[in-house]
Amino acid sequence: MNPDYVTRPKYRRKPLTTPAVRKLLAFLASCGIAASIFAYICSFSGVRVNSIFLWEAPLVLGTIALYVPIYAVEYSARESASPWRGITWKQMARGMPSWVTPCAVLLLLIYVGHFVWFTVHTGLGVPSIRDGQYVISHGRNLRVLSQPEYFTLKAAELRMLATLMVNIYFVPMMYWWYRRNQPQTS
Questions:
Q1: What is the pTM assigned to this prediction?
Q2: 15, 17, 39, 144: which is deepest, by most CB within 10 A?
Q3: Of 95, 104, 105, which Cα lies nearest the Cα of 175?
C-alpha cells in the first residue's frame, strides 16, 4: 500500500480537551460558584466564617484542581518553548464570547468593593475574640468591639471571601465551558 494514501489523524486529542472532561471541569467550577454564592447568602443570616470553614478548604483545593489543567493545556498549546514565557490572558480567552471579560472585570470590582469596605472598617485587622473580648487584631489588639459590631464584621469577612471565590471560579468555568479544541499537529 502506498503511504500517501494512508489516512492519518490531522491532530491528536489530548485527554484534558475531550468534551466530556471539559464539561466535567466546567460543572465543577459552576459548583464552586454555587457554593460561594450560597456562603454569601448565608452570611446575611448570621453564619460566620468559622462555621463554614469546612467549606473553605475544599473550595481552595477545587480552584487548584481547576487551574492546573488550564495551565497544562495552555502550556502545551503555546508556540514558544521557552519556560520563562508565561500564559497570557489573550491565549486563555481564545474561543470565549466577548461578554466574558466584562463579567470577569465586574466580579473583580465587586470583590474589590467588599475588600475595601472590610479594610476600611477593620483597619487591616481581623475581628477575633481574645481574652473573652471582641476585638480587631493585627498582631495586637487594635480596637475593642461590641458583639453586634463583631458579628457584622465577621459576616463582611465571609462575604469578602465568598466574592473572592466566585471571582476565582468564574475564569475556569468560562474557560472549560467555552473552550474550543484547536487542532494540534502530532
A1: 0.78
A2: 39
A3: 95
